[in-house]
């Protein structure tokens, strides 16, 4: 299923269905999203936000799969490991953190 994701500074993650060119799902952070990353060969998309959270979303349903906190300030960037089991974040609290991304399918 071809999908596209767009992140906005109002905290919205919009998932679009490309064949129909229509909005499929709208997901919400409490503050602006600064980065998103798709998991390779998956319907999961991860986001980081100025609200200090990393969230994993199922793009097909719009459901939040998991959420990670640990910074005392906004998360400015993140990256996923190749197998998407780890996220490394950089924050305005001058710290980097490594999160172990546990999901039911792992």
Summarize the structure.
The chain is mostly beta strands and 106 residues long.
Notes on the protein architecture:
The protein has about 110 residues and is mostly beta strands. It is about 0% helix and about 55% strand. The chain contains no helices and ten strands. It has strands at about 5, 10-15, 20-30, 35-40, 45-50, 55-60, 65-70, 75-80, 85-90, 95-100. A four-stranded antiparallel β-sheet has the order 4-5-6-7, with no helix packed on it. It has a three-stranded antiparallel β-sheet with strand order 1-2-3, with no helix packed on it. Strand 6 and strand 7 (about 65-70) form a beta hairpin. The chain is globular and about 45 Å long. The mean pLDDT is about 90.
Order of helices and strands: EEEEEEEEEE
Average pLDDT, rounded to a whole number, is 92
Show unreliable segments: none
Q: Judging from the principal axes of the Cα atoms, what is the shape?
A: globular
Q: Whole-Å distance between the termini? A: 22 Å
Number of strands: 10
Q: Specify the biggest β-sheet.
A: 4 strands, antiparallel
- Give the strand order, joined by hyphens, for the main sheet: 4-5-6-7
Question: Roughly what percent helix?
Answer: under 10%
Computed structural class:
mainly beta
Radius of gyration: 13 Å
What is the percentage of strand-forming residues?
Answer: over 45%
Number of continuous helical runs: 0
């Amino acid at each position: 299923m071809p999908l596209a994701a767009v992140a906005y500074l109002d905290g919205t993650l919009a998932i679009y269905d490309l064949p129909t060119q229509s909005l499929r799902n709208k997901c919400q952070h409490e503050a602006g999203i600064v980065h998103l990353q798709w998991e390779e060969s998956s319907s999961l998309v991860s986001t980081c936000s100025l609200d200090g959270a990393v969230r994993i979303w199922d793009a097909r349903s719009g459901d939040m799969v998991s959420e990670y906190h640990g910074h005392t300030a906004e998360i400015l960037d993140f990256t996923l490991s190749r197998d998407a089991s780890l996220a490394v974040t950089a924050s305005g609290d001058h710290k980097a953190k490594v999160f172990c991304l546990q999901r039911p399918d792992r």
